[in-house]
Amino acid sequence: MCFRWPKVPHKDIAESERTITEKVFKTPDATGKIGRQFYFAIIRKDDPHQKVIGAVGINFLDPAPSLGYGIHPDCWGKGFAGEAARAVVNAWWQLDRMGSDKAGKERLYAACNQANIASVKVLLRAGFRKVKEISIEGDTVAVFDQTRPC
Q1: What pLDDT, on the 0 to 100 scale, is given for residue 71?
Q2: Phi-psi region at 120: left, alpha or beta (left = phi > 0; alpha = psi -120 to 50)
Q3: DSSP line for 96-144
Q4: What's the CATH superfamily of 13-147?
Q5: Which of 12, 67, 121, 134 is deepest in the core (most CB within 10 A)?
Q6: What pLDDT digit, counting tens, does each position of 86-98 carry?
Q7: What is the residue range of the signal peptide feature (predicted)?
Q8: 77, 120 Cβ separation under 8 angstroms
């Protein structure tokens, strides 16, 4: 698995836009294809200006789909990451599967810095279970998975 995340929040909207553009439109998945992602902007439903406050989606669709998300620091601690993560996970499992005979065995993965207690809680509340811890670049990374509901 490959994990990347910023250790500090982006400096400004322009940095976030560059990062999202690079990720969604220029980064190939494990098969070498570009643009095969299940990714969404997070917008507060009560904001008439529809300002983007984060992003959430499923990365690396093949061979190991993984949930990823990020929220602007001004919006931390307000439940937006959890709501978005649960919605995307539920939508992911609702998608039709073509040619798959692995019903019930398909897995979705996620990871976060173990020290980021809020992110650990987001993943646990979204139905993930912690399966192991690994060390990446000096950080302890918690790895999670969940099995497709029957």
Answers
A1: 87
A2: alpha
A3: --SS---TTT-EEEEEEETT-HHHHHHHHHTT-EEEEEEEETTEEEEEE
A4: Gcn5-related N-acetyltransferase (GNAT) (3.40.630.30)
A5: 67
A6: 999 999 999 887 6
A7: none
A8: no
